[in-house]
Amino acid sequence: MKREDLVEIRIHGRGGQGAVSAATLAAEVAFKSGYYPQAFPFFGAERRGAPVMAFLRYSSSSLMPRCRIYKPKYVVVFDSELPAEGIVSGLKEEGGLLINASTELPSAYADVPVNKIYQVDASQIAAEHGLIASGMPLVSSVMLGALIRILNLSSLNVLEETLMAKMAHLAEENVKGARRGYNEVKEVLNSAYIQ
Questions:
Q1: CA-atom Rg of the chain in angstroms
Q2: What is the spatial distance between Cα 66 and Cα 36, in angstroms, rounded to a whole number?
Q3: Which CATH architecture has domain 6-188?
Q4: Per residue in 9-38, pLDDT tens?
Q5: pTM for this prediction
Q6: Which H or E element spans position 76?
Q7: CB-based contacts of 147: which residues, under 8 Å, 6+ apart?
Q8: Which residues are paired to 96 by β-bridges?
Q9: CA pair distance 51, 14, nearest whole angstrom
C-alpha cells in the first residue's frame, strides 16, 4: 500500500447521520493500517438535523497540524441537499469528492472542479439494513465503507473488525452496510473535466 505524507478529509453531514462517528472510526482504521490519525468534530449547538463537520487526517508521521482542515484532499458529503458552495470550498483539484446520492448526481455537485467524484446511495443501503433513527438513515457505516475503498486505506476485513469492536448497537447491520458501501461506491463523470 502506498503511503502518503498527509491526507486530509473533511466530512459534511447533518446531526444524527454519523459524520463524527465515521471520522472517528476511519481514524481507528488508519491507525490499524500503520498511520498516525486525527479525527475531531466541528459543530454549533447540537441538534439532530443541523449541519455538522468532522475532520480526519492521517500521515506516516506523527507531526501533523492541529487545526481544522481548510484545503482537504477529499470531501465527503453525507447529505446531498447541503449547499455545495461552502462544502467544496478549498477542495484540492487533484482530490476527490464522495457524495451520498441515488442514481443521479445532484446538479450542484456536477461541476465541482475536482479530479474525481464518487457516489454511493448510502441512504438507501442504510434503510435496507435497518439503520434508521428518528426517521433519518444512519449512513455513517455505508459512507465509511465507501471512503475506505476510495482512499485505498485498508482491506475490508480491517474495517469490518473495527466496526464489530466499536459498534455496540446494530453491529452486524453496520458491517453489512459498510461492506455494501465499500463494494458499491462508483466513480461518476465530472462535467467540469469534460473536454
A1: 15
A2: 13
A3: 3-Layer(aba) Sandwich (3.40)
A4: 999 999 889 999 999 999 999 999 999 999
A5: 0.93
A6: strand 74-77
A7: 9, 22, 26, 74, 76, 98, 153
A8: 74, 116
A9: 4
Distance CA 169, CA 70 (A): 33
CB atoms within 10 A of CB 98: 26
Q: What value does the mean pLDDT take over residues 187-194?
A: 76
- Chain CA centroid to CA 140, Å: 8
CA 133 to chain centre: 19
Q: Which residue has the cell 507531526?
A: 63
Per-residue pLDDT tens over the stretch 119-140: 999 999 999 999 998 888 999 9
Beta-strand pair 51-59/36-42: antiparallel
Grid look-up 428518528 returns: 134
Q: Could you give the CA distance from residue 5 to residue 124 in angstroms, rounded to a whole number? A: 35
CA distance 148 to 155: 8
